[in-house]
Amino acid sequence: MIVEFVEFRHKPDQSREEILDDARATVPKWRGNSELVRKHYVTGENDMGGAFYLWPSREAAERGHDSAWRAGVEKRTGAPPVIRYFDLFMLIDNAAGSVTEFPSGAPWPA
Question: Which fold does the domain 2-101 belong to in CATH?
């Protein structure tokens, strides 16, 4: 499993509701991506925004964030997104009461 963190800057002084409205507009695209396991939208200090994505592989992540997508982010925000990838080797899910370990390169459980 791969965790991908995508970071970008929001427009200065953009309200949380405006950020949420922008995020809502992306829901159909990401709901329609059969490779995406999960996406967590985040916002933070200094106009930082982004998302944590859970993918079955880095290749799936790269397909989801191709050059056209990157260009769109740059056009909207004025800067390219910063993307980092992490190998997800264990997941604790207290809400589900589970702990899942992932071997290297393992796909999401069916």
Answer: Alpha-Beta Plaits (3.30.70)
